[in-house]
């Protein structure tokens, strides 16, 4: 008789786990999935092309409804199917509309929530996040009749939202508390280069400041006041200030939680029958917001669920590969460096290319690549393996040295 696996969360982390489990042990579980959105599993990273108008919802589906039927997976999805309680003694999951399912193993993949800053006026109509298909649909609807869009947050999500709304004809200003864009992924010089290129596309920026008040007129946002004393007209405000693990359910049912749901190297929670993966988890003190480590967690979890208990999750070296409005970026390691570090820098302003390698003790300690990321994999391998780069230091900035020609 098959065991019962229930998955709370129909996003990329949970479904990647299910997909891997089906590949390795297709007959082990009867699988039931609960999701809060009325869709199959879609690629959240591709919400931006929907905003641009380049893709439709069907184009970003990873697993459509037919896939669930093909693999005999019971899918409960939509607002009423949000799981509100788990009876751990009876191993039973309860959804908002009363739908129930029993489990032998439970996987919590509730992801993350957008961080909404406690700014006065934040509940005004026209203030929103950029996280789900419904958010994109609302942004598109606003762009048809509104002129002024404000993006709070100069990270990847904020810049993509800004570019999308600009392409839909809105006047867009990005506000960022840090003094340069993508401050977690880029150094000042690369951030300034990015700002110049985006300004050339018509975006405006207010850096080194934030919003301190949201003004409304007739219940709808009309203006934002900045902490530098200035104000800007606003018909739409997108909060893109980060994410926080969605751990409310896990906390309510008594699982160990800190900033995220605490899991061990087997992706197991404090309850041995309950596993967790994705942006909701905390592993060895670390939280996750990128796809690569989340998919690695999914692989490990699937192996554990299929009783291959030799698999253990090890945190990956943080490396960020991004494409921001068509511009390739890459960063890894300590790309700002310190007193004991030296830097090798290459710039070609005409081609919008900037490369910086931080060297410490004859080894690469940090990498920033802007506009040309072709050698990123090799640089990252050198960083991970702590390769002594002395033999080719003089030409290191130009990428992997050619192999010697055999005599």
UniProtKB/TrEMBL annotation:
Domain FAD/NAD(P)-binding, chain residue ranges per copy: 4-292
Domain of life: Bacteria
Keyword hit for Disulfide bond: no
Keyword list, A-Z: FAD, Flavoprotein
Pfam families: Pyr_redox_2, Rubredoxin_C
One MF term in the entry's GO annotations: oxidoreductase activity
NADH-rubredoxin oxidoreductase C-terminal domain boundaries: 318-386
Cofactor(s) essential for the protein: FAD
Family to which this protein belongs: Belongs to the FAD-dependent oxidoreductase family.
Official protein name in the record: FAD-dependent pyridine nucleotide-disulphide oxidoreductase putative nitrate or nitrite reductase subunit
Gene source species: Methylotuvimicrobium alcaliphilum (strain DSM 19304 / NCIMB 14124 / VKM B-2133 / 20Z) (Methylomicrobium alcaliphilum)
Lineage: Bacteria, Pseudomonadati, Pseudomonadota, Gammaproteobacteria, Methylococcales
């Amino acid at each position: 008789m098959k065991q019962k696996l229930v998955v709370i969360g129909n996003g990329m982390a949970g479904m990647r786990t299910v997909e891997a489990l089906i590949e390795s042990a297709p007959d082990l579980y009867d699988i039931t999935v609960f999701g809060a959105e009325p869709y199959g599993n879609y690629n959240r990273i591709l919400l931006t092309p929907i905003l641009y108008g380049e893709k439709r919802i069907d184009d970003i589906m990873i697993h459509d409804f037919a896939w669930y039927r093909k693999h005999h997976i019971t899918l409960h999805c939509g607002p009423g199917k949000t799981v509100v309680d788990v009876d751990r003694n009876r191993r039973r999951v309860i959804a908002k509309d009363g739908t129930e399912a029993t489990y032998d193993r439970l996987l919590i993949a509730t992801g993350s929530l957008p961080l909404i800053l406690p700014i006065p006026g934040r509940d005004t109509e026209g203030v929103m996040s950029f996280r789900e298909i419904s958010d994109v649909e609302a942004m598109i609807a606003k762009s048809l009749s509104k002129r002024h869009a404000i993006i709070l947050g100069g990270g990847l999500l904020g810049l993509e939202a800004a570019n999308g709304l600009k392409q839909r004809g809105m006047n867009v200003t990005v506000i960022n508390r840090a003094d340069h864009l993508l401050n977690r992924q880029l150094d000042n010089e690369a951030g300034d280069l990015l700002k110049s290129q985006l300004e050339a596309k018509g975006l405006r920026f207010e850096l080194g400041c934030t919003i301190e008040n949201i003004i409304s007129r007739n219940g709808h946002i009309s203006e934002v006041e900045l902490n530098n004393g200035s104000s800007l007209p606003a018909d739409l405000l997108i909060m893109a200030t980060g994410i926080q693990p969605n751990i409310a359910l896990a906390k309510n049912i008594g699982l160990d939680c800190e900033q995220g749901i605490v899991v061990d190297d087997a992706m197991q929670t404090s309850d041995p029958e309950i596993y967790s993966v994705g942006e909701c988890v905390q592993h060895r003190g670390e939280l996750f917001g990128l796809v690569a480590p989340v998919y690695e967690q999914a692989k490990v979890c699937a192996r554990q669920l299929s009783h291959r208990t030799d698999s253990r999750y090890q945190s990956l070296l943080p490396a960020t590969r991004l494409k921001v409005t068509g511009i390739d970026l890459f960063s890894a390691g300590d790309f700002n460096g310190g007193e004991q570090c030296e830097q090798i820098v290459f710039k070609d302003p005409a081609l919008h290319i900037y490369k910086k390698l931080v060297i410490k003790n004859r080894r690469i300690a940090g990498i920033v690549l802007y506009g040309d990321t072709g050698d990123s994999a090799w640089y990252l391998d050198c960083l991970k393996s702590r390769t002594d780069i002395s033999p080719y230091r003089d030409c290191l900035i130009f990428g992997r040295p050619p192999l010697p020609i055999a005599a």
